Each structure stands twice: as structure tokens, then as C-alpha cells.
Amino acid sequence: MPIGYNSSFAMPPTFLLIGIPGLQGGTFWLSIIFCAIYILSVMGNCAVFYIIKTEKSLQGPMYFFLSMLAVNDVVMPSSIVPKMMGIFWFGAGQIDAPSCLAQMFFVNSFCAVTSGVLTAMAYDRYVAICFPLRYVSVFTNALLVKLVAAIVVRAIVIILPIPLMVLRLRFCTNTVISHSYCDHMAVVNLSCSDTHINNIYGIVAVLCTMVTDLTLIGLSYAMILREVYKLSSTHARHKALGTCGSHVCVIIVAYFPLAFSAITYRIGQNRIPQSVHVFFADVYIILTVFLDPLIYGLKTKQIRERNFSTFWR
């Protein structure tokens, strides 16, 4: 039995977040950059949401999913960045257990929602390009409601067991989380009890979201490419592929850091410094939501033109 173990210590009342391990004293300028990116990302996503909601030509299913992604990109970083800035600036790393579990749930569930929205957008592009004459009849308001409900319910069902399973763990005297927020694996690694179930379920949750969605997105774009290269006109090919360009960029931005974090936490944990793990996790939360409105704002003609006309006026 580990030294300092207390059998009644099922869940400590508070944890201590330390930010980026090894860089506690040198994160001032990094925190300024993170804060600036966060503020700009909130402004950018709010601008995208406002433009879609006020522009009558942007009322299709694709833009509905884009507005949903913009809202998610505002809420997700807002669940951790204020606390993160408190750690970096004021050393306010103490967080009570319920808030820690809530943060864990919201961060992971918003990531699952993002993945679900990107998958729905890939399906939208597939129907629009492969079955253009049936697009309006397929993407009805009823289907949109069902897709949104499925995305949200799936995220809750898959992610809710994660904090609930953390509740069953027992902890020793160490309650210092080597992270900027209550990451699932960072909290689980503090436990004195058997964590195999938590580790296995974490992998299952990743497979049920990221791998499944990437497979569906890949199939959608494989069929899109097959259909596009049947077109005789080069201009028609470029136009069809152009409608998918921004979506593909967002997919790369969203999935690459997440895949790196998930794989290295379980495979390369002893080979890659903890500070690198935490830094990439922070970058994933902050930078991806900053790049999304930039990508869609620059590569989507209607949003780009409305942005220019609004700011010029």
C-alpha cells in the first residue's frame, strides 16, 4: 500500500493545476499570446456566426453547421482559458473537485461535438456534389434537427462516463495536476488505484469519435473525388473541389493535434517531455478555434465578401 494512502480519500476536495510543467516561471509572454489568440478567436467566431445569421444567402445546411461550429469554438476554450490565465498570471491553480470534473466533461464533450459537426459537413458536401438535384429534398429541416440531436447526444453519452469513472478512483497525497486544465489522463495518473478501466475507456471514446468520424469523412471525400473526376469540364472540377477546400483545411487543423495528444499520452509518455504534452494540448484548444474562422472567412466567398463589405462600411 503506497505511503500516505488514505482509504477514505476517494476524491480529494481540491486539486492544484500547475500550468505547463517546467515552465511555470517563464510563461508570461506565452500566456499573453494565448490570451490574445483566445480573444481574437472569440471575436472571429462571433463574427462568422453573426454574418451567417444575418445574411439571407447563407441560410443553407452547410452554413447552419458552420454556425454551430462557431458557437462550439467559442464555448469550448471559454471553459478552460480563463482558469488557465489565472494560473499563468496569478498562480491561482487551485480548483475544487466538482469544477475539475465539470471542466473535464465539457472539454471532451465539445471536442466530440466538433468532430460530429465536421462529419455532418462532409456528408453535406457529399450530397451537394454527388446528388445536386436531390440536395434540397435530402437536407430538410427535420434532418438537420436529427443530425444536431445525434451529435449532441452522442457526445454526452460517450463523454459522461469519463468523469463518473474518475469518481470511483482513490487518490494518494499527490493532488498536483501537471497540466493547464483538468485533462482526463493527467487526473487519472494521480490515482493510487487500478486505472486500467479508465485507460481502456479513454481509448474506446477516442475510437468512437475520432476514428469513426475520420473514416466517415474519408469515405465521403473518396466518393466526392470519384464523382468530381467524372466531370468533363476542368472548371467544373475546380469549382466542386473549391467548395470542399475550407472544410478539408479545418479537418486537418482539428484532428492532427488531437491525434498527437491522444497517441503520445498512451504510447510515448516516457519518451516525450510532459511539457510538450501539455503545450500541444493547450495549442489544440486555443489555436484550432482561432484558425477555423480564418479558414472559412478567407476561403468561403460569401463570408469573405460579407466580411469585407461590413468592415469597409
UniProtKB/TrEMBL annotation:
<feature type="transmembrane region" description="Helical">
    <location>
        <begin position="245"/>
        <end position="267"/>
    </location>
</feature>
<dbReference type="GO" id="GO:0005886">
    <property type="term" value="C:plasma membrane"/>
</dbReference>
<feature type="transmembrane region" description="Helical">
    <location>
        <begin position="200"/>
        <end position="224"/>
    </location>
</feature>
<feature type="transmembrane region" description="Helical">
    <location>
        <begin position="28"/>
        <end position="51"/>
    </location>
</feature>
<keyword id="KW-0552">Olfaction</keyword>
<keyword id="KW-1003">Cell membrane</keyword>
<feature type="domain" description="G-protein coupled receptors family 1 profile">
    <location>
        <begin position="44"/>
        <end position="296"/>
    </location>
</feature>
<dbReference type="InterPro" id="IPR050402">
    <property type="entry name" value="OR51/52/56-like"/>
</dbReference>
<dbReference type="InterPro" id="IPR017452">
    <property type="entry name" value="GPCR_Rhodpsn_7TM"/>
</dbReference>
<dbReference type="Pfam" id="PF13853">
    <property type="entry name" value="7tm_4"/>
</dbReference>
<keyword id="KW-0297">G-protein coupled receptor</keyword>
<dbReference type="GO" id="GO:0004984">
    <property type="term" value="F:olfactory receptor activity"/>
</dbReference>
<feature type="transmembrane region" description="Helical">
    <location>
        <begin position="101"/>
        <end position="123"/>
    </location>
</feature>
<feature type="transmembrane region" description="Helical">
    <location>
        <begin position="63"/>
        <end position="81"/>
    </location>
</feature>
<keyword id="KW-0812">Transmembrane</keyword>
<dbReference type="GO" id="GO:0004930">
    <property type="term" value="F:G protein-coupled receptor activity"/>
</dbReference>
<protein>
    <recommendedName>
        <fullName>Olfactory receptor</fullName>
    </recommendedName>
</protein>
<feature type="transmembrane region" description="Helical">
    <location>
        <begin position="135"/>
        <end position="160"/>
    </location>
</feature>
<keyword id="KW-0807">Transducer</keyword>
<feature type="transmembrane region" description="Helical">
    <location>
        <begin position="279"/>
        <end position="298"/>
    </location>
</feature>
<keyword id="KW-0716">Sensory transduction</keyword>
<keyword id="KW-1133">Transmembrane helix</keyword>
<comment type="function">
    <text>Odorant receptor.</text>
</comment>
<keyword id="KW-0472">Membrane</keyword>
<dbReference type="InterPro" id="IPR000725">
    <property type="entry name" value="Olfact_rcpt"/>
</dbReference>
<comment type="similarity">
    <text>Belongs to the G-protein coupled receptor 1 family.</text>
</comment>
<dbReference type="InterPro" id="IPR000276">
    <property type="entry name" value="GPCR_Rhodpsn"/>
</dbReference>
<keyword id="KW-0675">Receptor</keyword>
